Amino acid sequence: MNRRKLSLFTIVLTLTLLLSACASSPSWEDEALPDTGGPLLSDDVQAFWTIGESESSEAEDVKRVRLEIRHRDGRPVEDFEINHEKLLHLMVVSKDLSYFNHIHPDYKGGGVFEIDNAFPAGGDYRFIADFKPAGGGAMTKMAWIQVQGRKADPVPVTPDASLDKTAEGTRVELAIDRLAANAEATLTFSLSDADDREPIRDLQPYLGAIGHVVILSEDGERYVHVHAEEGQGSGPEAVFAATFPSSGTYKIWAQFQRNDRVFTVSYVVNVPR
Ligand SMILES: [Cu+2]
């Protein structure tokens, strides 16, 4: 196996493990594994999610999201390392991928993270948590959770004819060097002023990088890891690397910061067979 194949294999294996870890399997909870003292792996960690009433808001759409991170034997995971400036990154995405939010819950101790979120409608949401327990690797826990409330009509996920989007006065054009399954793609975002088309050179670092990119498959099952190239400046280009695990439709959300404001642009692409 050459290096590229090996790394692809690792990515696929990791995805498979992540996906299988997301399906709640009650049989695991009965298995008491000996604590070997080795590095904490994703399989050793479970996430328990609760959506409840907000304690600080009366608004009906605001719910309290609670996430409890435990070892497989039930003990809370107590210590987390700061990763990209935060202890935990939470992505909240509606089932039809029309709603996206990237938030940072407060750590309450004892493995518990909490944050209020305003949901646009009731229905199923994809929750994705990225964190790094002390003594462990960076890991991702995902879950589908139903949020109470009146459901909205689903918005179809349709590939964009043009990868040219504008948000908060900034035009963001995305170029992808090759759209193919299992091949590393380079995503280049070119930012310019929406009015005068002048290249943007005042991007501020966001979470310790030039920006943050999230990619999900159309069905919300596959969360594609994206890496910003190191040592990028403040625009007008932002370059990321990602590998789409299979053909199909994917949604890409890119977040950048200017003038102390974070803005999000999204794109839908089709990865051909
Ligand atoms: Cu984050």
Notes on the structure:
The protein is mostly beta strands and 273 residues long. The chain has helices spanning 3-22, 26-30; strands at residues 45-53, 62-71, 88-94, 100-103, 106-109, 112-118, 123-131, 139-147, 164-167, 170-176, 184-193, 212-217, 223-224, 226-228, 237-243, 248-258, 261-271. It has a 5-stranded antiparallel beta sheet with strand order 9-10-11-15-14, with no helix packed on it. It starts with a helix and ends with a strand. Bound molecules: copper (II) ion (CU). Copper (II) ion (CU) is lined by residues 86, 89, 102, 104, 207. The site of copper (II) ion has 5 residues, from loops.
Write the layout of secondary structure elements.
Blueprint: H1 3-22, H2 26-30, E1 45-53, E2 62-71, E3 88-94, E4 100-103, E5 106-109, E6 112-118, E7 123-131, E8 139-147, E9 164-167, E10 170-176, E11 184-193, E12 212-217, E13 223-224, E14 226-228, E15 237-243, E16 248-258, E17 261-271
The structure holds copper (II) ion.
Number of helices: 2
What integer value in Å does the Rg equal?
A: 19 Å
The biggest sheet, with number of strands, parallel, antiparallel or mixed sense and barrel status, is: 5 strands, antiparallel
Q: Please list the strands of the largest sheet in the order they lie side by side.
A: 9-10-11-15-14
Q: Would you state the CATH class of the largest domain?
A: Mainly Beta
Instruction: Indicate the CATH architecture of the largest domain.
Output: Sandwich
Regions with little confidence, pLDDT below 50 for 5+ residues: 15-34
Mean pLDDT: 89
